[in-house]
Write a structure and sequence with these properties.
92 residues; 50% helix
């Protein structure tokens, strides 16, 4: 893990973002005290973002949307859960 002060981070932000995207963790300090951790976006969030870009899901920053009320009711009746729906979607 790399440790970097805020001043140095501001001067070379692009370099440290690239390093974090490549999998390296960057600990940001302010006067020697840790204040933030810069890491890569987890694969789960990357997958959600790809689904949003493919317009398979919609998200306006509020409560996630996607399933119609009818589909939600059907899932409740059959006992399906969100993780089951994700696994089913990945198999397609």
């Amino acid at each position: 893990m790399t440790t970097i002060g805020i001043k140095d981070l501001k001067a070379r932000l692009g370099q440290y973002v690239s390093r974090a995207a490549a999998g390296e963790k960057v600990l940001v300090t302010d006067r020697g005290s840790p204040v933030a951790l810069l890491t890569a976006v987890p694969p789960e969030l990357q997958a959600l973002d790809q689904m949003r870009r493919d317009r398979r899901i919609r998200w306006s920053g509020r409560k996630p949307q996607g399933l119609s009320l009818r589909a939600r009711a059907r899932n409740r009746k059959t006992g399906s859960d969100v993780s089951g729906a994700v696994v089913e979607d990945r198999e397609r």
